[in-house]
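New to this. Please check this protein:
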Amino acid sequence: MNNQSATLAELDRFDTLVDVRTPLEFADDHLPGAINVPVLSDEERVAVGTLYKQAPFEATRYGAALVARNIAHHLDTTFADRPPRWKPLIYCWRGGKRSGSMTAWFNLIGWKARQLEGGYKAYRHEVLARLDRLPGRFDYRVLAGLTGSGKTRLLRALAGRGAQVLDLERLACHRGSLLGALPGEAQPSQKSFESRLAQALAGLDPARPVFVEAESRRIGSLRLPQALMQALAGAACIRVEARPEDRVAFLCQDYAALFADPAAFKQQLARLAELHGRRTVAHWHALVDAGAMAELFAELIERHYDPAYLRSSHGLYARLPQALPFAFRPDAADLGPEADRLLAGLSMAPALAVPGEMA
């Protein structure tokens, strides 16, 4: 390590994390809290890379000129108001020329800039190591139950009451079911999701239980790490139960936005044709056109969601047959008392005791 570099262990020493990769690289994933100040645009990086295959020296000279111009622009804009004692940590893909150039110029100016040793690649390696190492450290309480029973609402009510939770659907920006995409909100990339998850796991206390919602191996398009699925497989379970009418009402409320775009909604339902047949899906399309929300969700619960749950959940969660039942009203105006009731019930169940939660 030279005197202008720093390691991941030293992140807290710096005022700003500066990611000089392209906007596309940054969008795919980045260090938490970093700002994107690219020294090459997406198009410029492609142009330099293409030229490098034909003429390495010319590509290096051309790239250096682009980097110099872009750094000058950033000095006149993004960094124009930084004080003399400012300490940035700068990184690119693997601690190479892009971050090295900006680090050198910043130090010539007088800022105490450092280059992240190994760059984003070192950070990515640490994320994968955490996802392999951390999941097995915790004592999980898995909230299982049929679609529409309000598991996510209960999980967030538990968080509001001070319980320790791992909210996988919030990290994934998806509700987890076939229709679980959030309106107007795209899921993160797989790498970005894994970074969020690693950060969330690192913030948990192994001395306290962790409440988590039962999920399949995928949440939308994102895969859950194998180590986490293995840790959850043997965890104690709580079976969240709700009345059929409450489940339908809950789904009508939570998925009402789907009816705002009937064409897109019907396209999602069409993916079920292979499983349920074209005639059934055509019937569901007719219910969408008629705005028959309650009737549609009642049928989806009976014919799709419940059978799918019974097929998959028992294979993923070994202790589900011994789950503690919890009758839940997902439509209650204030779910805090419901969360309190669950915590109180767990404290009286020896196999699912929740030490410290009632303190």
In short: The first strand starts at residue 5 and ends at 6. Residues 293-316 form the longest helix (24 residues). Residues 136-352 form a domain with the Rossmann fold fold (CATH 3.40.50). DSSP finds 15 helices and twelve strands in the chain.
